[in-house]
Write a structure and sequence with these properties.
Order of helices and strands: HHHHHHHHHHHHH
Low-confidence stretches: 202-209
CATH class of one domain: Mainly Alpha
Number of strands: 0
Shape: elongated
Mean pLDDT: 84
Distance between the termini: 64 Å
Length: 209
């Protein structure tokens, strides 16, 4: 398809050329390169302020994300809710894309409007490999959201034993309470009375029990 036809099709879809390339599921890397080489704006966002890199990260298109990062795309440009490309990779469990963004220098501790960092989101969703990536990359392990919930609190709340162990191994604060005074152990015991027994192992080994 020629550049002119691509441009017409993108206009008909109501997106920029670079966004169309980022969201395509087949041959997207080659098309993204073609469009950027032809002068398509790498950081042109849609009405929700979602940039091509944001879309690539959200959909797990590792190759496109890497190419856009290498081409100088803005790595920390957030959407209307304050979610960055790295936040979206964390949310969807796209560990390979998260690694690309971290290696490209994306802000690991940039929070959305709710104060939720990429590590917080990955911990809440139970994406073990992504949590490990962030911990190894030096992300802030105890940065809380607007309600003072930490990544460990969220792992405890959702019963994510493996994630809780990773955070404990990374020396996350085990007794940091939320705005209601509830610690990770309290949350695990109250909200998940059956699964909390699995959560207690990592916490016990670090002196909480």
């Amino acid at each position: 398809m020629s550049y002119f036809l691509l441009k017409l099709f993108a206009a008909w879809q109501g997106v920029s050329l670079s966004q169309m390339a980022a969201s395509s599921s087949e041959g997207h890397e080659a098309v993204a390169k073609l469009l950027c080489d032809a002068g398509a704006a790498k950081d042109q966002a849609a009405k929700d302020r979602q940039t091509p890199l944001w879309i690539a990260a959200s959909q797990g298109h590792e190759a496109v994300a890497k190419w856009l990062c290498d081409a100088g795309a803005a790595k920390d440009e957030a959407d209307k809710d304050g979610a960055t490309p790295l936040s979206m990779a964390a949310n969807k469990g796209h560990g390979a894309v998260a690694e690309v963004l971290c290696n490209a220098g994306a802000a690991k501790d940039e929070a959305n409007e709710g104060g939720q960092t990429p590590l917080w989101i990955a911990s809440f969703k139970g994406h073990e490999a992504t949590v490990k990536l962030f911990c190894d990359a030096g992300a802030a392990k105890d940065q809380a959201d607007t309600y003072d919930n930490t990544p460990l609190s969220m792992a405890a709340s959702e019963g994510h034993e493996a994630v809780a162990k990773l955070l404990c191994d990374a020396r996350a604060a085990k007794d940091q309470a939320d705005e209601g005074g509830q610690t990770p152990l309290w949350i695990a015991a109250f909200r998940n009375p059956l699964r909390s027994f699995g959560i207690r192992g990592p916490l016990r080994s670090f002196g909480v029990l």
